[in-house]
DNA sequence: CGTCGCTTTGATAGCCTTCAAGAAATGTGG
DNA sequence: CCACATTTCTTGAAGGCTATCAAAGCGACG
């Protein structure tokens, strides 16, 4: 718990005391990195009062569950979330980890029910945006910005897929770390300190590897002095080596 | 060439003689399956005359190339396309195969330049839609439909990712075939006949496998009577067996 | 201090990759 | 229409990497 809080503070744009802020986007600390940043410039100001008060979640609290009726999306304000899909065969797949500024829950808008469960990995906060308000945004002329938002998501998915196509386990792990470093940098934090509040099991699952294989390779990198010894907050000592191993990203 | 034409006819909603149709969506043979079908019901009729005349492409003709300035998206009317991304290390990745009714080129709207090259695998046709017209669509109140469109794309990506996470080569190939069968069914064709105009190399690349491994397993399935012997048009004799091997999809 | 969950480490086996060669299909020129 | 060159695909054998099974640390918590 105390360790979770530490990790939390490090990645919390709004610090360790969530809840003391209004829902207004102008005051949001993730303003400059939020996926909706383009929208804000144009019309989000008019909708600020319609954004739901920031939702506060503790570790393992669900933002929504698979099958829930869906009438809204979320933007992560602080903390880290994970999305899990259960296949027809009953297997669990960790499809995404969500960091501050990222949009969550859009897939639920296809059928009106969420296709995955999303829950907090640390004490976290998220903004709820009703799809009705999304519609208002478009009508107000934010269409160009919206296209960029979609395109950005898709480009990210593309990189994730390329990373999964890479057969080598080292390349996959390194690729994941590089993508995470980019996200940290975008948030204005040192890209060499990565908050990893998820379990090794979740991480391995997300990368399509076994937990033993992941553990072994991370151990190898630790002994080689490429990364730090911490488990929940990984220090990247030699970013160049990681980038070399992840040579397959665009 | 004659074989390509055969494959072509089989998947061509508009037959083997493209070009004789107006660009109007009301007359498009993919109307009921097009990714924009929701849009049509609401407002696309008003925009029909703005959709560019169907573009006709021959095998290996590029729809667009990586780096090209992008001011439009495309919807496949007939044929099959592939999208290729080149990484910084110079490696090629086949990120997508596009069948009739599917939207292509959205990632280019992030930076205004296309992030991948997309080319025809058979004689094909595609509709060009300027992003300006997309904006008009949103303004006309098609926001709800658009959200569904985005969500649908993302859900598809999710399945593709899950398929790639699966470590077993058999499961990956089977999963790809199942997803392709669903697409064929959506188009109103027999799901057991799959047009595969792409090379084995492209297919293996897309699945994150080596071409030898793919060839070996397909050969095994052929000998077991699970699939037909054809190369460019695969007949699925035992869909149940394939579905069992692809147990990981949702 | 002992239990429980998570992580690390070890040994073996299986699958896929790699390297290599041959077969089939495709394309070209005579 | 055939012969030849080129590309694409199939098949084979050996080796490496990851999965699997198993057990031992390590940390959290009561």
CATH class of the largest domain in chain A: Mainly Beta
- CATH H level of the largest domain in chain A: which superfamily? Jelly Rolls
> Tell me about the biggest sheet of chain A?
4 strands, antiparallel
**What is the averaged pLDDT score of chain A?**
83
The CATH topology of the largest domain in chain A turns out to be Jelly Rolls
Proper CATH architecture of the largest domain in chain A: Sandwich
Proportion of residues in β-strands of chain A: 15-25%
Helix content of chain A: 25-40%
User: How many domains of chain A, as an integer?
Assistant: 2
Overall shape of chain A: it is globular
Structural class of chain A: alpha+beta
Gap between N and C termini of chain A: 37 Å
The radius of gyration computed from the alpha-carbon positions of chain A, rounded to a whole number of angstroms, is 18 Å
Q: Helical stretch count of chain A?
A: 8
Query: What's the quaternary structure here?
Result: homodimer
Q: How are the strands of the largest sheet of chain A arranged?
A: 1-8-3-6
């Amino acid at each position: 718990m105390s360790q979770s809080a530490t990790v939390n503070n490090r990645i919390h744009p709004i610090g360790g005391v969530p809840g003391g802020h209004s829902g207004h986007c102008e005051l949001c600390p993730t303003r400059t990195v939020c996926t909706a940043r383009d929208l804000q410039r144009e019309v989000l100001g008019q909708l600020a009062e319609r954004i739901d008060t920031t939702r506060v979640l503790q570790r393992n609290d669900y933002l929504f569950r698979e099958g829930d009726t869906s009438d809204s999306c979320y933007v992560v304000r602080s903390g880290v979330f994970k999305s899990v899909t259960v296949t027809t065969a009953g297997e669990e797949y960790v499809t995404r980890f969500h960091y501050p500024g990222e949009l969550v829950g859009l897939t639920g808008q296809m059928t009106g029910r969420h296709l995955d469960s999303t829950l907090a990995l640390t004490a976290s906060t998220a903004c709820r945006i009703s799809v009705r308000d999304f519609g208002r945004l478009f009508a107000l002329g934010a269409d160009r910005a919206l296209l960029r938002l979609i395109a950005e998501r898709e480009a990210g998915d593309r990189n994730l897929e390329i990373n999964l196509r890479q057969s080598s386990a080292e390349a996959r792990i390194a690729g994941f770390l590089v993508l995470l470093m980019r996200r940290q940098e975008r948030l204005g934090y040192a890209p060499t300190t990565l908050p990893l509040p998820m379990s090794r099991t979740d991480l391995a699952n997300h990368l399509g590897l076994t937990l033993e294989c992941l553990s072994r390779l991370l151990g190898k990198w630790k002994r080689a002095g490429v990364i730090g010894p911490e488990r929940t907050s990984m220090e990247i000592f030699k970013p160049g080596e990681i980038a070399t191993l992840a040579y397959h990203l665009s």
